[in-house]
Amino acid sequence: MRWWRTESLEARHIRDEELEWFLRVLCASFGLDYSTARRFFYDDPYFEVNQRWGLWLHERAGRTLVSVATAIPLQILLNGRAVACYGIAGVATLPEYRRRGFANHLLQQMLHALYAERAPLAILQAFNHDFYRKLGWETVSVIAHARLEPKQLPRYETVPLRRVTPADAPAVKAFYERHYLPRTGSLVRDERRWEYLFWNLPNLWLCEFAGQLEGYIFYDFLDSGWTLRVRELLWSTERARRALLGWLAANEESVRHVEFQMSLEQLASLRLMGWHLPPSEPTQPMYSVQIVPNLMARPIHAHALLQALLEGVPAPKGFQSFNLRVRDSVLSENSTAVGFVAQNGRVRLTNGLPDAPTLSVAPTVLAMIAFGTLSVPELRARRMLSVPDTLVDALDALFPEQSPCLTPIDFF
C-alpha cells in the first residue's frame, strides 16, 4: 500500500556529505553495530567505485532518507565472455517505513539511470525472489548445499596446512588462473576483486608439498562459529584433495558442522561419502544435498548485453536473420528491437530488421537465455519462449545451456 505521492520522493546518488546518513540506514535496517560497520564501510576496496543510492521522503518536518541500495561494478563470465554488470547489494528500508513501496521505487529509478549508462546487466542475491521478479529479475542459477559433521569426513594422514601470508597472494592468484576454469556465473577476478577477497575473507589456508602450492581453502563461520562454511576449495592433485579434507575433519573439536556450498559438479568432484558408522537402515541417507536458488539477474540495456555476448561469434549452421525485442514493462526504453545478421560467417548486431522474424521475450526469459539456465528447446517446451522451428537450432547454438553458479567466494 502506498502512503505517499511520487512528487514527495527523491531518488538519487548519495553525496559525500550524506555517507553517514546512508550508513546509519544500513545499520538500522540490518541490525548492525554502527561503530563496527563504519570501519568496514570505509575500508571496503570497492568504496571508491560503488554507486550508493538513496530515496528521500519529503515530509512536513523535513526530509528523511528511508531506503538505500548499492550498485557494485563487476564483471561476470557468460559463455566464456566477460560481461560488465552491476551487483545490487544492501537494499534496505528503515523498519518504520517498510511495506510502503519505497525500495521498489528506488530500484526502478536505479534501473533507468543504469540503462542511461548502457549497463548490460544487474545481478543480485535476493532475500525474496518474488519481490525482485516483479521488477524483471529472474533466478538464473542454483547452488548445492551439503552439511556434514567433521567426523563424517576422512581423516587422511598427510601434510599440515598453513595460514596464508600477504606474500602468498601472487601464488594463490596464479594457482587459481592455472587450475580453475571459471564457469558461467563466476565473477572475473581483477586486482580489485582479489583485494576484496583477501580483505573480506582472511581465513585462507594453503596446501603445499615441497614448497609448491597444490591447493587452498577459503572459509568463514556461521551459527556463532559452530559451522565452518567452505567458500572455495581448490586442489590440483589427489594428495592435495586428501590434505584439505583431512584438515576439515580435524576440526571436530572446534566446529559441529562443515558446510559445502558450490556447484553440484564441484561437490561431486570432492567424492564425499559421509561415512561415519555402518548404516543400519537402507533408507537412511548418509547426508543430504539441497539444490537451492542462487543468483538473480536482470537485463538492463538489452542491446549492450546481447552485443557483449554475441557480437563477432561464428554464425551457427542454418543461421538466418532475426530480431529480438524485450517486453519490459518496468524499463520501457529497453524494448527496442535488436537485429541479428551474419556477415562473413560472423554474427553482427544491428537495429531492428523490418523483414525478419521477431522474438518477443520478457526480461526474465532473456536473463535465463543469457546465462544458459535452460536451453532454448527447454524454454520452448515449458512455453516460456515462442520460437519458430527454423530458428530453434541456431538459437540453441548461440545460447547453449551452461549450468551457471555463483559460488560463495564470489558473493558481494
Overview of the structural elements:
This protein is α+β, with helices and mostly antiparallel strands. It has 3 domains: 6-119, Gcn5-related N-acetyltransferase (GNAT) (Aminopeptidase); 144-275 and 284-293, Gcn5-related N-acetyltransferase (GNAT) (Aminopeptidase, 3-Layer(aba) Sandwich); 302-398, Nonspecific Lipid-transfer Protein, Chain A (2-Layer Sandwich). 28% of the residues lie in helices and 29% in strands. It is built from 12 helices and 18 strands. It has helices spanning 19-30, 34-43, 102-116, 129-133, 169-179, 191-200, 238-249, 264-270, 302-310, 363-371, 376-381, 389-398; strands spanning 9-13, 51-59, 62-78, 81-93, 121-124, 138-139, 142-148, 162-163, 204-209, 212-222, 227-235, 257-262, 289-293, 296-299, 322-326, 338-343, 346-351, 358-361. It has a 7-stranded mixed beta sheet with strand order 1-2-3-4-5-14-6, with helices on both faces. Strand 2 (51-59) and strand 3 form a beta hairpin. It is globular and about 70 Å long. The model has no long low-confidence stretch (mean pLDDT 95).
